[in-house]
Amino acid sequence: MTENRITTLFNIKYPLIQAGMIWCSGWELASAVSNAGGLGIIGSGSMYPDVLRLHIEKCKKATDQPFAVNLPMLYPSIEEHIATIIELKVPIVFTSAGNPKTWTSKLKEAGITVVHVVSSLKFALKSQDAGVDAVVVEGFEAGGHNGIDETTTLTLVPAVAEKIDIPVIAAGGIGSGKAMLATMILGADGVQVGSRFITSVESSAHINFKNRVVETGDGGTRLTLKELTPVRLIQNEFYQKVQAAYAEGADKEKLADILGRGRAKKGMFEGDMIEGELEVGQVASTIHEIKPAAEIVAEMMQEFNAAVEEIKRDKFNF
Asked: In whole angstroms, what is the distance from residue 142 CA to residue 152 CA?
């Protein structure tokens, strides 16, 4: 495909971005996706400052292509993370879970391209006003922490694209080239893909979690814990425990007590499929095997281009 606003902004071959997922997105995955023509992202939300430094240094050695770091704004050592990102000259930062005004100007002063993740038009407009270079608009289908309004990707993308001037990256429910094309027809300039890369060879997710994602069927995930932070989970024993608490009328404090600390690490990184928090999107039901990240990128782009050719052949000209 030819260049567009996203490939130009990031200096990449394809408008395909790998999500910066905690416990799943280390330097191996980020560098593999960048080397394949997409934009790889290191997920810093699960990393201590010294660990992030190590992952950035290794990523720079593994690829000469652009890559990014995902930076949750609520991370307790965010100032250390930002200092490391600036010192090591990371070219692109994706911020999330907070006010983009807080750090965007500092990052941009350092010559860094800034993208913010949002789940509503309201916050897309706020992000544009804050000076970010692009936004990721994440629909209800997405895995992990999610928007509270349950707005689907196919609804959110055109609503945002119509109202803002900066590039729009669609996320949530995208695991194929056809889904990529659908969101771009609706106004997105590119896509961000998370769940499909969880099951890549290079993902730092535990093999138990990768296998569980592959086994997840239709309706196998649910959005829950809205009182804390909405999160989409595979329905394992921990999820059932949360549902039982709801049935008993549990309040916010009780739910926080059940969640505890480190439960996402326990599930996704350490491989506890019973008591762990297993964050993945609805698209998991369409993922059937573990394969190298480069193959995932190539397959998605081949399917994307084939779908474009179908449209050119007037398949939909009724």
From this structure: 9
Q: Read off the pLDDT of residues 160-212 as tens digits, 9 standing for 90 and up.
A: 999 999 999 999 999 999 999 999 999 999 999 999 999 999 999 999 999 99
Residue type at 120 in one-letter notation = S
SS3 (DSSP) at 114: strand
Beta strands in 164-209, from DSSP E residues, in sequence order: 168-171, 190-193
User: Alpha-carbon torsion 133, 45, 172, 56, what sign?
Assistant: positive
- Looking at the predicted structure, is the pLDDT value of residue 1 above 60? no
Tokens of 274: 């019973």
Q: CATH assignment of 5-204+288-312?
A: 3.20.20.70
Residue ranges of the domains in the chain? 5-204+288-312, 217-283
pLDDT tens for 116-142 read 999 999 999 999 999 999 999 999 999
Q: How far apart are CA 217 and CA 241, in angstroms?
A: 20
